[in-house]
Design a protein that fits this description.
- The protein is α+β, with helices and mostly antiparallel strands.
- It folds into 2 domains: about 80 residues, Ubiquitin-like (UB roll); about 130 residues, Alpha-Beta Plaits (2-Layer Sandwich), CATH 3.30.70.
- Helix 2 runs antiparallel to helix 3.
- It is globular, with a radius of gyration of 19 Å.
- The two termini are about 20 Å apart.
Length: about 240
């Protein structure tokens, strides 16, 4: 009979609630296990976290720094706060930055009504954008026979990059540039339709939180994403 490995449990508080965490567990994972909601856009079950969107920022007692919950590991005796006025202000400001950097016009978007960015704005109460719009003129890559990439609606969450690398294993997608000039690219910045590594699996399209990646032939409000398959694919790859 095999002996079970000893699992070290750490005790801490999240919003005044006593919780127990396993070794290496993040605050975001722990919060979700205990029914505590922390908003996020770049997190995706089944792939690695990278702390890109910063919407899951939390406060930790004894520290002035705000840290992303998806990257912060639970520690013994830690006291975490997820809904302070400071955090609400920062999250609304981050969402304003995301909405103002690209061209998000919901009324003509294929993901209208099925968009994580749109839902997050409703959740946080962002009724308008308090920053000037940059209104960039960005390209639309329609070279792929099945899918389209609209850089105007991309929020650079890199879900597509991670699912392509970690689930499909193709490593077709990547990121190029710095700051607001970052763009999602294919291979060595080639048109998507000319990629020699893309398998046309469509996983990247399904995990995109906005209308940046879409299937051809979809009209306004018709692009509904499916993501329930990811945790199962991840488990099968690990097995």
């Amino acid at each position: 009979m095999k002996r079970q490995a000893n699992v070290r449990i750490k005790t801490l508080k999240i919003d005044g609630i006593d919780v127990g965490a396993r070794e290496g567990e993040t605050i975001l994972e722990l919060a979700r296990e205990n029914g505590i909601h922390i908003p996020t856009l770049c997190h995706l079950d089944g792939v690695s976290d990278w702390g890109g969107c910063r919407l899951c920022l939390i406060e930790i007692k004894g520290s002035n720094r705000l840290v992303p919950a998806c990257m912060a590991q639970a520690e013994e005796g830690m006291e975490v706060f997820t809904k302070t006025p400071r955090l609400v202000t920062y999250r609304k400001m981050i969402l304003d930055l995301l909405l103002s950097e690209r061209n998000h016009v919901c009324a003509v978007c294929v993901s209208n009504g099925h968009c994580d960015l749109q839902s997050m704005a409703q959740e946080l109460g962002n009724t308008h954008v308090g920053l000037p719009y940059l209104n960039p003129s960005l390209p639309v890559d329609a070279t792929h026979p099945y899918f389209i990439m609209d850089h105007n609606r991309c929020i650079l969450c890199q879900r597509c990059v991670r699912v392509c690398r970690e689930i499909e294993g193709a490593q077709t997608k990547g990121a190029m540039g710095r700051g607001i000039e970052v763009r999602i690219i294919h291979d060595l910045n080639e048109p998507w339709g000319q990629s020699l590594t893309c398998t046309s699996c469509g996983k990247c399209v399904q995990v995109c939180p906005t209308g940046a990646l879409l299937q051809r032939g979809k009209a306004v409000g018709e692009m509904v994403k499916r993501r329930d398959f990811l945790p199962y694919l991840q488990m099968m790859r690990e097995d």
